Amino acid sequence: MAPLLVLFLPAGLISSLGLLGYGLGTLGRTGLRRADRRRRLRSGAALLGATAAAVYTWGLLHVAGAVLEAEDGGAGSSPLLPCRTPGQWERALTVVDYTVDYLPLRFVCETTDGGAYAAESVPDYVNPAALGLTLAAAVCLTVAATRESP
């Protein structure tokens, strides 16, 4: 699962920049005041989508850092560094492996008893912000598709 990070990080960056360029370019051709509602909604959806992709990519960078820490061997590497949660050292001592979940985005520590818990490597705002921005972009796009231009 972790090798997908190599694909998702550049894809997130490219999609974020592409949507940003589309959103600003569409408004820039006609101007904000001259643009009709449909064009403004499509541009807004693109800008919201660009922001959602940027926030998700930011979370992917945090997960990639946690993977790099987990793969780094040497002195002090057991238990895995990302799985060390302050105040819960007993739980960290039972960690045997890790996985990466992409929806919701998180670094998951697997324990010897078959359980798992999410490490605190991804900031708390990443998943709700990415979801909210994606839903807002979808609403803008839906309204733009159903709304008739004057």
Automatic annotation (TrEMBL):
Bilayer-spanning residue ranges: 6-24, 45-68, 125-145
Superkingdom to which the source organism belongs: Bacteria
Keywords from the named record: Membrane, Transmembrane, Transmembrane helix
Name recorded for this polypeptide: DUF3592 domain-containing protein
Protein species of origin: Streptomyces monticola
